[in-house]
Structures are given as C-alpha cells and as structure tokens.
Amino acid sequence: MKVVIIGAGYVGLTTGACLAELGHHVLCIDIDEARIAAIKSRKLPVYEPDLENLVARNLDCNRLAFSHAIGSNISDAELVFLAVGTPSRADGDIDLSYVETAARNVAPHLGEQAAVVIKSTVTAGTAKYIRDLIVRIRGDRAIDVASNPEFLREGSAVRDFMKPDRIVIGADRNASQVKLVELYAAFERRGVPVLKTTTINAELIKYAANAFLALKIGFINQVADLCEGAEADVVAVSEGMGLDSRIGRAFLSPGPGYGGSCFPKDTRAFAAIGRRYGQPQSLVETLIGDNELRKTNLADRILEELGNPEGGRVTILGTAFKANTDDMREAAALAIVPKLIEAGVEVRAHDPKARFQASRLLPDVLWYDCPYEASDASDAIVILTEWEDYRRLDLSRLAGAMRGDCLIDYRNLLTSDDVVAHGLHYVSIGRPKAL
Ligand code: NAD
C-alpha cells in the first residue's frame, strides 16, 4: 500500500521503516528540515537499536522515502498517518496543536481514496474532532479519520512494532477499517490479535493501558519502600508476585520513578480525561503525585548518605530515563541532579548514549566518556539507568577511583555481597541493608 507518515520521530520513523520492511511504499514527512537531511544521509536523529539498518535497507530498495514538505507528494497515499508529538499542557491535558497543524497541512492534498490515521497518543474524541476539521477545510465528507494507537517502547521500538502483542484499529467507518486491516494483514496472518473497535475506544485503550502499567511501577515502588521497613527483599517479593499469570513479571522492578515521553504525560492526560467526564481517576491522580515525590525523596537520600553535601562529589551513572535510549524526557536525573547541585555537590556523569541530549538539559554537570574516569575522587556513585554495562562494572577499579565509599544503586543492578566485598557501602532499593 502507499502510506504517508507525518512526523519522523521515534514513532513515525519506526513505523515508516517497519511498514516499508513489510513491503509497503512509505513516505515520511517531517517539518524539521535538518532531521530529514540527517536521515537521508543515514544519520538518525534518535538512538534506537536496529533502526539505522532498517532505514538504510529500505532507502536502498526505494520502499522508503523522506521529505520535509507536504503537497502533491501525498495525493496518491491510501493511508496518511499523523505521528507528531502530543506534549503535556500545564493543566495535564495534551497539547493537540501539532496534530491539528498536521491535519490542516494534509487536508487540501488528500486524494479521494485516502484515510487519515492518528498514530499519536491523543485524548478521547480526537479522531472525531480531526475529522470535523478536515471536513470543514475540504468542504466534503469523503475523508475518514481512524485511530491506530502505538504501543512500542523506546529502546526496543523495532522489535515491539514487528512483534506486537496486539494491534488496535479504531474506525467509525468501514472504509478506513478495511484499509488498516489490509495494511496489517501480515500480522493477522501470523496470529497477532487485531482488535477492531471504535475510535473513542481505541483512544482510551492506549491511555488506560499506559496508566495501568504506570500503576504497576508505582505499586512496586511502594512495595519496595515497605520491604525496606520490614527488612524484606523486593526482588523476591516481586518475583513471587510476577509468577502469578494474572499479574505477570513485567513492570515489577522498583526504581527511581517512571519517566520518559509517555508514562508521565499519558497518566496526566488520563487523569485530565477523567476530570473532563466527571469521573475522576483517583488511583492515577495519586500515582502522579507519588511518582514526582519519589524522585525528590531519592535525591534527599543521596544527600543524607553524603552527610555533608557542600563540596561533595557525586557521579551519576546513567541519565536516560531508561536503558537503550538517548531520550531524556522526564528522566529521573532531571529531578535528582539539580537538587544535588543546589546543595553544593559537584556532579559528574556518564551515559553510553544520552550524553548529548542530557548535557543540554543539565549544563552544570561534568561529562565523561568512561564511567571510571567519571568516578575519579567521587564520594558517592549513583546508578540511575539500568544500562547493561553498569551490571558488569569492574568494582575494584571503581572503588580504587573513588575517594568515598558509597555506591547507591537505584536500579538494583548489583548484588550486595559483591559490592561490600570491594569495601564499598551499598544502598539499593527495597532490599535488606548490607552488613
Ligand atoms: P517525537 O517528538 O520524537 O517526534 C515527533 C516529530 O513530529 C518531530 O520530529 C517533529 O519535528 C514532527 N512534527 C511536529 N509537527 C509536525 C508537522 N506539522 N508536520 C510534520 N512533522 C511534524 O515524538 P514521538 O516520541 O515519536 O511521539 C509521537 C506520538 O506518539 C506522541 O503522541 C507520543 O505520545 C506517541 N507515542 C510515543 C511513544 C514513544 O515511545 N516515543 C510510544 C507510543 C506512542
């Protein structure tokens, strides 16, 4: 099929490259000219495993193309996806202006056969609203607007897109549903469940699913706190919980609070939808506050471990909001590092992929390419991101580089016995204190 994707960010670029890999002809359009120029010269603007090869392969065989302009180049498309950003507004609801602008831009150029598909995560009722907008601009009712929310995760975006748990097709008319079913036929043949429903259901499925996953994280973080009080081990508790197939093991690892481009924004939007319909989502409202408080509390804990923070030196290992991405949006580091600096601490940092993004957001931090150099004469080391490299740290080298002895592991990557055997004081989350 001929497909156009508006927005070449994490979701748009991954969707475009994967659909091309499946044999469709895809044109990705982004208003950011520098981004498009970089992609064309095979330098991807985001770090995402496997994506670079996929883009290169499909560029080479002419199934994938890129442009920064919308015009007659979209008029033969059967499906036009909107995959632009939907950031949070101050009131928690989302800013729909990027989706609106993209819809206004495509509307005059759509062919009669086209359906617009909203891939961005949008509030309940958006597909209907965007359809009315397009009808007003074009002066005809031919174009349908469907909803096809995306569930991929940064860090495993290509794998998630290619092996989805399910595909949700929200369509209020048969024509757009038929087109989307055809687009994803290869998945359905492989046995991937394809849920066909209305646009408003599809929009709410995305938010309810993300809110539920965020609740799982918030829940295990509170269980971890309880384990600390009770001198229990959250690793064993979460394993015992997760082996119950009704619960499952995913999203049951405690950490420094969820971050990233989705959970914080999507939980706020879900709560805003609840308020709008007079059905407050109190569980999620509480979670949002707790998650922010957790980041502040964990910063305070670092300061307590330092004793006298003024003039202290702390090394942060990992600033990205999670491993395998360079995305810094709402990362725990953005809440924790400024609190340390405010208390007079010198902060040094290392991240295998997020250094460039993070250094712009945390300008007062000293950056290093090597975790051991970053740890030179540090009083404390804090692991904030679960990069595999940090699991395999050479603890002798680390201990030798430091002037203090405190290793704070907010991802529970290491084992207490190992760390203590190297003469270090170990602080982790929800596990019994090292003796
Ligand atoms: P992003 O910020 O990485 O990319 C958005 C892109 O859209 C940018 O490159 C921007 O230049 C472009 N853009 C904005 N307005 C445009 C316009 N009018 N015309 C053309 N291009 C335009 O965002 P993302 O992370 O890819 O997220 C996109 C949407 O998908 C959001 O609604 C997000 O909530 C949702 N989503 C994201 C993820 C994720 O893991 N990132 C997962 C599922 C869903």
Automatic annotation (TrEMBL):
Binding-site list for NAD(+): D30, R35, T86, T121, E154, K265, R329
Active site, per annotation: C262 (nucleophile)
Q: What is the lineage of its organism?
A: Bacteria, Pseudomonadati, Pseudomonadota, Alphaproteobacteria, Hyphomicrobiales
Q: What is its EC number?
A: 1.1.1.22
Protein name (Swiss-Prot/TrEMBL):
UDP-glucose 6-dehydrogenase
Its top-level enzyme class, in one word, is oxidoreductase
Tell me which residues bind substrate.
F151, L152, R153, E154, K206, F251, L252, S253, P254, G255, G259, K322
* Catalytic reactions on record: UDP-alpha-D-glucose + 2 NAD(+) + H2O = UDP-alpha-D-glucuronate + 2 NADH + 3 H(+)
Mind telling me which InterPro entries this protein's record contains? Answer: 6-PGluconate_DH-like_C_sf, NAD(P)-bd_dom_sf, UDP-Glc/GDP-Man, UDP-Glc/GDP-Man_DH_C, UDP-Glc/GDP-Man_DH_C_sf, UDP-Glc/GDP-Man_DH_dimer, UDP-Glc/GDP-Man_DH_N, UDPglc_DH_bac
Q: Which PANTHER family is this protein grouped with?
A: UDP-GLUCOSE 6-DEHYDROGENASE TUAD (PTHR43750:SF3)
Q: Which family does it belong to?
A: Belongs to the UDP-glucose/GDP-mannose dehydrogenase family.
**Biological-process GO terms, alphabetical:** polysaccharide biosynthetic process; UDP-glucuronate biosynthetic process
Pathway terms, separated by semicolons: Nucleotide-sugar biosynthesis; UDP-alpha-D-glucuronate biosynthesis; UDP-alpha-D-glucuronate from UDP-alpha-D-glucose: step 1/1
Keywords from UniProt, A to Z, are:
NAD, Oxidoreductase
Domain UDP-glucose/GDP-mannose dehydrogenase C-terminal span(s) in chain numbering: 315-416
The terms under GO molecular function for this entry are: NAD binding; UDP-glucose 6-dehydrogenase activity
Question: Which domain of life does the protein's organism represent?
Answer: Bacteria
